[in-house]
Amino acid sequence: MDSERSRTEQLTIMTSEIIAVTSFLNSSTTLFTAPATLIGVQYFLFLQVGVYGLALVTILVITAVIQVWLKGRMAVIKKQKDELIR
Predict the structure, then answer these.
(1) For residues 43 and 37, what is the distance between their CA atoms, to the nearest angstrom?
(2) Using CA atoms, how far apart are residues 42 and 53, in angstroms rounded to an integer?
């Protein structure tokens, strides 16, 4: 019986690990496909309209800077709120 339990436990552990790895792979595809899509779009846009295609890069950089700045501000405000609650 002990060997059956250990085998069952092993199968359960292996199944849960396989599920975890599969879900990670499914969710991580976005991390790799989004940048590849942006690079591809930029390349084809540059081929089609030339220098005007750099406008997309400019917009993406400005948006990224704003997002990073907002994230920093939100972290500071959250820290201040946490200090007020204590």
Answers:
(1) 10
(2) 7
Q: Three-state SS for 70?
A: helix
User: Which of the 8 DSSP states describes residue 1?
Assistant: -
pTM above 0.70, yes or no: no
Asked if the model's pLDDT at residue 41 lies above 70, the reply is yes
Distance CA 62, CA 40 (A): 19
Q: Chain-centre distance of CA 24, in angstroms? A: 11
Which residue is associated with the tokens 């890069």? 57
Measured between alpha carbons, how far is 19 from 13 in angstroms, rounded to an integer?
10
- In single-letter form, the type of residue at position 60 comes to L
CB 53 within 8 A of CB 45: yes
Distance CA 81, CA 57 (A): 36
Q: pLDDT tens digits for 18-31?
A: 888 888 877 777 76
